[in-house]
Amino acid sequence: MPAKGKHRxxxxxxxxxxxxxxxxxxxxxxLPLMGAVCAHAAAPAAAVPxxxxxxxxxxxxxGTAVEKSSVKTYVVKAGDTLVKIADRQHVxxxxxxxxxxxxxxxxxxxxxxxxxxxxxxxxxxxxAGAARPAVGATTATGTTAATAAKTADAGYTLPVEGxxxxxxxxxPGSMWSSGYHTGVDFVVPTGTTIRSVAAGTVxxxxxxxxxxxxxxVLHADGRYSQYAHxxxxxxxxxxxxxxxQRLGLSGATGNVTGPHLHFEIRTxxxxxxxxxxxxxxxxxxxxxx
Length: 289
Hints:
alpha+beta, Membrane-bound Lytic Murein Transglycosylase D, Chain A, Glucose Permease (Domain IIA), 8-stranded antiparallel sheet, 3-stranded antiparallel sheet, 13 strands, disordered N terminus
């Protein structure tokens, strides 16, 4: 502290003493000296006002704060699908919007994304962090949340139109090697058009043993749909299909007692990974009779 006081004392006392000499008519030689001192100090005095400047931080009014950019990069991990990513990241527009924004890096097949791929995430749902109405609760527009969910979950359809269900899922029986029915049978006559329940990629199309002629399609959510006992095929492995696209015609090939479509939903492309196909379709807003 003494060193600081010693530094400041001549700084503040020398100038008043010089001014006093000039003010009382002191020696004329003091005038040039005073002029030199004042000229040297004038430069910073002109640049910096003598009064202390008040620096004010201006904040945006409440409710109008500038939002951070909603655009970010997501690195694909093993097991990811566009549907899962869009859901977790609350992408407004779902996986279709995510795919449209990243088509250049994903390529022509939205069901095939590789770990390490960098996706641009934008257009996040503004209500992502807000409380969401319970299923069945009426929204401000008078539309139920359940109805809105079905509307947003477009892109799924029945594999056959107007068909009735014969044998249901997991019906027990010795005629099946697993001990139960691994899919659901839609009763249709031979020659009925079979359609893909959603967009995807054909992973196999051909003879499937007891299943006869079959087609297996991989969808964007990582699930596989299987269509068996067909009399004719319209697609081949590796082909990209859209929702409702014709895969072939129903029939009675393989191990059957009559014409029908055997339909499965699987977690892998092979037998033994089945899940309830009716529940799956209904979860995507498809009305199953």
